[in-house]
Amino acid sequence: MDFKSIESKWQKIWEEAKIFEAEPSDKLKFFITIPYPYLNGNLHVGHMRTFTIGDSFARFMRMKGYNVLFPMGFHVTGTPIIGLAELIEKRDPRTLEVYTKYHDVPLEDLLKLTTPERIVDYFSKEALKAMKGVGYSIDWRRVFTTTDPEYKKFIEWQFWNLKNKGLIVKGSHPVRYCPNDQNPVEDHDLLMGEEATIVEYTVIKFKLEEDDLVFPCATLRPETIYGVTNIWIKPAKYVIAKVDGERWFLSREAFEKLSHIKKVELLEEVDAKDFLGKLVVVPIVNRKVPIFLADFVDLDNATGVVMSVPAHAPFDFAALKNLGLKIEPIVIIKTDIDGIPAEAAIKEVGGEINFETLEKATKYLYKKEFHVGKMAENTDYAGMKVSEVKQIIHDRLIKEGYGDIFYEFSEKPVVCRCGTKCLVKVVKDQWFINYSNFEWKKKVLDYLEEMKIIPDYYLEEFRNKVEWLKDKACARRKGLGTKLPWDKEWLIESLSDSTIYMVYYILAKFINEGKLKAENMVKEFFDYVILGIGDLDEVSKVSKLSKELIEQIRKEFLYWYPVDLRSSGKDLVANHLLFFLFHHVAIFPKELWPKAIAVNGYVSLEGQKMSKSKGPLLTIKKALSTYGADVSRLYILLAAEYDSDADWRSKDLENLASSLKRFYSLFLENLKKEEEITMLDRWLISKFNRIVKETNEAMEKLQTRRAVNLAFFEVMNLVKHYIKRGGKNLSLILDDWIKLLTPFIPHICEELWHTKHNSFVSLERYPEFDEKKIDLEAEMVEDYVMRLVEDIKEVMKFNPEAKEVYIAFADKWKYKVLEALKDGKLKDLMKDDEELRMKGKEVSDFVKRILKEKVVNVKDEEAIVLENKDFIEAETGLKVLIDPLKVPEEKRKAAIPGRPAIFLK
RNA sequence: GCGGGGGUUGCCGAGCCAGGAAAAGGCGCAGGGCUUAAGACCCUGUCCCGUAGGGGUCCGCGGGUUCAAAUCCCGCCCCCCGCACCA
Fold first, then answer.
1. Dist CA A348 CA A363 (whole Å)
2. β-pairing verdict for A305-308 and A603-605
3. Which nucleotide lies at the shortest CA–C1' distance from A494?
4. Burial A220-258 (b: 16+ CB within 10 A, else e)
5. Which residue would you say has higher pLDDT here, A774 or A584?
6. What is the pLDDT of residues A386-400, one digit of tens each?
7. CA of A850 vs C1' of B65, distance in Å?
């Protein structure tokens, strides 16, 4: 058999029969969406995981009787595609290598992709091919690309809507910036320092006693201002610069950095030594403290001027000690530490005074004081928590004119791909989406409690992320996309133009049919169709669309919306999925907010992380050509559950492929008609029915791994057992088994289904649990036989020479006692039954044992053994004889109902 | 640092939310079958002990609750992911 030809055959037939094209009907609808992929490369098996989970669920719901809409589009807005086009144009060797080697793009094709348009065109065709090749049940009439003119109209409408609601604001914020490229730098544009984050230092202005020269000390612990005893500068050259109308004493590096944040003017260069011993005034505290020199001061960190708090900063403590200066540390934070905290911290981590221990001690103390520390009596905030006071003092300093902010990287150096050291720049007059808006957040938080999050522990993650979300810059200077309609200098950033586009799938069908054009898509049109606002006659007039069409679109929108499930990779939790919620909550009435979100994990390759830009990468194209669609689908569903990561291992794929082949031929070999129904057949039906139940339960929770495990492997085990036991009527479950597997391996199932039927199994009803099919008797009998075989085999270990096995069943009285015990009438029985009373001890031992062991309760043990004699003999290689007399008495006595005595000879 | 997830038998990975199996499944390994042979496939075994169906020790570490804990509680150690203006 050739799975690949089966797959393309059914894909073609499905497409021709249009069975996945969804139209409103009187059935219950189910609208499932997966985030459209970003097309700066070919789709890979990571995409395949997310899409396959979605597709299996879409197929499952379809078979459950829902009218399922599963659409797809392509995301191309933003900068990476432009960047890629430039790199290809430049014939960048690394890019050419990655795209030919990992993205499977033939070199001749790749070399042509020198413009964003060609890249979009090329990869969208490839993506379409790949997705169709996996057999996704997508309604392809609704496909679109985010640079379509109609899409831009939609985005413009969305942004006007947000703006009118006051959710778009202007502001400034710090970004990582390359002074050479004069552009913000993204992670993948970095040579070094990807880990670095932007840290906000508080700058505290200490003024020189004799004039107004400012010593701006940068600190992460503004609350320690009460403990300042001196300030430190490095014995080196500094500069004096004009900053905000003041004269600041700064390192040369700090001056450079500051020049990107605010207007600064270099006044003169000075030598630190000239300031040694001069006095400065500590703001708020109004204490005069001296300036000292210290080598540990880093000119390239923040301002290059630091304040000294020996009681709470191990470096300061050690430096003062080293200088032999008699300066008394001032303790201003209380924890459980006695004495001087900095000193204690140094002791705690090892005592040696060197850079490493001081670093460790600093970290230790910072952590401790931040979490459990309280401000001491000699401060303005006695008794308050350090964690709270920190912010209060920071704000107070700025408010009173003694403070400022300085941004710095947490790790250094941070180097751009061009080789230049990056710095932090504050971008001004930027457009933001006002996610920090309290009421907006509140609405989202409240709604989270109502919606379904899969897996459920992600609810907590979402709550936290909503709290944490700050305003987001939503516009850029560079990239593909839609211009901000009220400020055409700016392009709407790509995470912001992809938040409510699920609406667009409903419009896209009409657009692709040519019924709806960009020129029709005016504000009134969207307002009416999406929000139900406006007058139909008026809307028809300004949009130049017929009233019928407008009404139809409105109706279809209301039929399909809201989104019932958005299923996505976990990388989108802290960004897209949040924005998706925020924008829905802001724009739509509550009944149109999304119902559920599901999150799945990544895929690695033989234990290695995949990377689009560095490799390794396995494209869907390659996976399909190597393993085929159904094998890949089954594998990726099985590889991991929920958000845990899956590891793609070719060895396992191969094994799975042969299992599928076995399944395929097993099916074809067992098509023949049923013979008489036996106890074993009843067992098969009963057990299968249990699996049907569990598979349904698993799918309802989107546990595809569990579902596949049950529907394929567990059933396979049943079938193997059944055949080994001599079962002849496998066809009893085959139809249902095929249906059970259709969401996962639709092509093979469709092929096998058509050996007997003319319908599409993709549209059949999914098997449901049927209580009546549970057959406890048949299950018990099977358990009994297998237990007996197991026991005989166990004993065979000790008597490998045995030729025969003698079986003796438990004495009659034991069955009587068991019955009575079950009915709770054991006491009565013992009273009435003379024989049992005689056996007092024996009876109580027996009762103890059956309470401990699970008793298989079957009716006629002898009949069962006789019926299965052939099987037992075949399994054990022993001759089975029912002859109590040949079984030694002590063994016979040990027999209990359901577990006969056996004796090997 | 903050937040989320996790540490299970050689490996991967269920089970733990609803406490009562040496602990599913797969891989690997060993033995057997099949085959001219290899591969594939099928069967059996895979913590330790045991000449009778049994016993013992196990689920990051250390405590606790319980007749009973991988499963509940407390403390500790370690690992992974996110922290943005970027898709």
1. 12
2. unpaired
3. B87
4. ebbbbbbbbbbbbbbeeebbbbebeeebbbbbbbbbbbb
5. A584
6. 877 888 888 899 889
7. 29
